[in-house]
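Module 6 notes. Inverse folding takes a fixed backbone as the condition and produces residue identities as the prediction. Think of it as a translation problem where the source language is geometry and the target language is the twenty amino acids. Below is one complete input and output pair. Work through it position by position during the lab.
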């Protein structure tokens, strides 16, 4: 019923990510920040995901006003981000990152819960809506790669502010009844969090996103330092998301056929392989292309399976906080820890060892998934 309205939000939200994640580090470098400072500023973006989604998730689960919270968070994120036009010193940029990301990180988990509740028993079709986010990411990252190659990254804050406004406007098109808010579940949340499968899943999500942090924070810088142009960087980012779309188009069939546990184990193994390839073969463009196709597994399969498992493990009105916990433990705590470690590893032992460390972290995630996620 609300397919295009829901899809429109994902389109703008992930187009913003397509501008922010690949190019924000390049913009910060153009302002004169060191690798460690860039890692710290990106870590702030991730760290607010530890706190913000859980606060807003608790409010949404208790008020039943999930879309009102999404709209408010999107508007305040846009207003807060406008602070980048005032000053660009390190402390001020850190403050702006804290404020805007506190609101921006609140929106997506609640919108995910809205989408899944709207789908009802057809949650395996989530990927057909979420793929529009991947399309938005591809458009942004590919187009901006060519733009920034000609003009530099100076226009990035203006582009991001326009995209934040687009997210807010798209949220206005989704009515509150799309969330299909459910009654309070009889089982307390603390009992859900004690289940071994829940603990294992959250640990796996933390580790997988920690392993991705060097990619999200330094991949563009890594390629530019090895002689690749901004347009090629953009094309490689876009290739990864094109592969991701292919997965989203098939997940509705793969989940019932292969099961969540088996798909998660494959995703963690291919994630580790991807980081090894990036570490050892950066000078071989063909190997980088192959590594980018593995984004289909390292993010596409992993994310679809994680969303599926969270939705089934956190039921009733725990769903908002379930999605918030997934976001805070993975993209928040995992991303922040990984970004901090990546910045120090880059300066200390070099980019190659940084990506090899990511591979080891992904392998640990696979072992935990194998031991902790039930076969059924």
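Target side of the pair, the amino acids:
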């Amino acid at each position: 019923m609300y397919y295009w309205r829901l899809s429109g939000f994902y389109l703008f939200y992930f187009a913003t990510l397509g501008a922010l994640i690949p190019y924000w580090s390049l913009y910060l470098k153009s302002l004169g920040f060191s690798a460690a400072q860039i890692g710290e500023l990106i870590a702030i973006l991730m760290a607010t995901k530890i706190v913000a989604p859980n606060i807003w998730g608790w409010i949404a689960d208790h008020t039943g006003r999930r879309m009102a919270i999404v709209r408010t968070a999107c508007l305040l994120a846009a207003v807060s981000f406008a602070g980048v036009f005032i000053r660009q010193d390190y402390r001020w940029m850190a403050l702006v990152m804290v404020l805007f990301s506190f609101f921006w990180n609140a929106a997506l988990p609640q919108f995910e819960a809205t989408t899944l509740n709207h789908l009802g028993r057809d949650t395996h079709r989530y990927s057909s809506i979420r793929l529009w986010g991947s399309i938005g990411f591809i458009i942004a990252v590919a187009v901006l790669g060519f733009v920034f190659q000609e003009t530099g990254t100076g226009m990035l804050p203006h582009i991001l502010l326009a995209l934040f406004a687009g997210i807010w406007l798209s949220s206005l098109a989704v009515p509150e009844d799309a969330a299909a808010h459910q009654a309070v579940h009889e089982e307390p949340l603390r009992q859900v969090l004690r289940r071994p499968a829940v603990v294992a899943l959250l640990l796996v999500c933390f580790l997988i996103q920690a392993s991705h942090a060097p990619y999200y924070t330094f991949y563009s810088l890594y390629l530019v330092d090895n002689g690749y142009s901004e347009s090629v960087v953009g094309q490689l980012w876009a290739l990864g998301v094109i592969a991701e779309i292919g997965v989203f188009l098939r997940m509705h069939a793969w989940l019932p056929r292969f099961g969540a546990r088996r798909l998660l184990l494959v995703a963690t193994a291919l994630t580790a392989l991807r980081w090894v390839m990036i570490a050892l073969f950066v000078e071989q463009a063909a190997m980088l292309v192959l590594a980018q196709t593995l984004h289909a597994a390292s993010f596409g399969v992993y994310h679809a399976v994680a969303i599926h498992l969270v939705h089934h493990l956190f039921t009733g009105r725990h769903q908002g906080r379930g999605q918030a916990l997934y976001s805070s433990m993975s993209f928040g705590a995992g991303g922040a820890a990984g970004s901090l470690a990546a910045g120090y590893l880059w300066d200390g032992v070099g980019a190659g060892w940084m990506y090899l460390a990511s591979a080891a972290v992904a392998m640990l995630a696979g072992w935990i998934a194998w031991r902790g996620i039930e076969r059924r």
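Reference fact for the lab report: The longest helix spans residues 90-119.
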